[in-house]
Amino acid sequence: MEVTGPRPSNGDPEQADTGGGTAVRSYTIQHDGVTISASRGGRGRLMVFCPGLSSTQADLHELVGLLRRDYDVVTFDLRGHGLSSAADRYFFEDFLSDLVAVMSQLGHTEPGATPLLVGYSLGADLVVHYASEHPGRVGELVLIDGANPVPEPFITEADLPVFREMWEQMADQLEGLRGTARQVLLDAREILDLNIQIDAIRSGILDRYRMIDRPITMIMSTAMAGEGGQGRALNQNWHAGLDRLVSDQPHISTFRLNADHGLVLTHAPEIADIIRSTQAAVDSSTTI
């Protein structure tokens, strides 16, 4: 693994001043044949923010900017996303290796650091897997609309044509973002295959939670699949997964926002406030 940087800003809001006078440093991490684009800025406790499938640092600039007022935030683009390079493979373990590379770089520069680890959507699943495999390298976890042990898979054989069409349409929309800081290089088939794999992984994710002894906060949407009639069953499955998790792990703090899966974009101030308040409570209980 090789770390390089900084590189010049290209006008991406993630590379600008955070609004509180805090500069953001951009750098890259070379690993597994890919170049991971990362950035760091802010003040306070160290936080690592892991984005999700089809989300980039540029997409998350409002939420990350708010968090940088109180935290020293490291965030990055997963392979095939944003300013990171394309890859030959886009499986769950490949994205997990991107997070491992980011965390390993921090371990080299700041030995013994145990950052607050935040993940959104797929990023939440990556965070849970990382924490279960590296128990001494993380502090608390904040999981945003992901890592949900849903009782039923989201994509069944009968649903495949519908989801295939949906992601083909999404891929067409993403085509217009090629060459920008918001680009996503996965095609429709790769996105569909990854979502099927995530379904299988979430069927056993409760075992991962049982391996983690750190405080966990869940911030979940109330209408993950939207308010339409077609999304009702998916939303019910989403709520059932959260209920199942809380029943098995009652110490987990949960918050539900009246939003869909895009809550990191539509409810950034509320999410930042929840993270600040829950971490303040954890810090207070630790010092008593």
Task: Please outline the helices and strands.
Layout: E1 2-4, E2 24-31, E3 34-42, E4 45-50, H1 61-67, E5 71-76, H2 92-109, E6 116-120, H3 122-133, E7 141-144, H4 160-175, H5 188-202, H6 205-209, E8 216-221, H7 232-248, E9 253-257, H8 263-266, H9 268-287
Parallel strand pairs: 4-5, 4-6, 6-7, 7-8, 8-9
Antiparallel strand pairs: 1-2, 2-3, 3-5
Task: Walk me through this protein's architecture.
With 288 residues, the chain is of the alpha/beta class. Helix 7 (232-248) links the parallel strand 8 and strand 9 (253-257). Helix 1 (61-67) runs parallel beside helix 9. It is built from 9 helices and 9 strands. The termini are far apart. Helices cover 40% and strands 18% of the residues. The longest helix is centred in the last third of the chain and has 20 residues, at 268-287. The chain is globular and about 50 Å long. It has one domain (2-287): Rossmann fold. It has helices spanning 61-67, 92-109, 122-133, 160-175, 188-202, 205-209, 232-248, 263-266, 268-287, and strands at residues 2-4, 24-31, 34-42, 45-50, 71-76, 116-120, 141-144, 216-221, 253-257. The model is unreliable at 1-19 (pLDDT under 50). It has a 9-stranded mixed sheet with strand order 1-2-3-5-4-6-7-8-9, with helices on both faces.
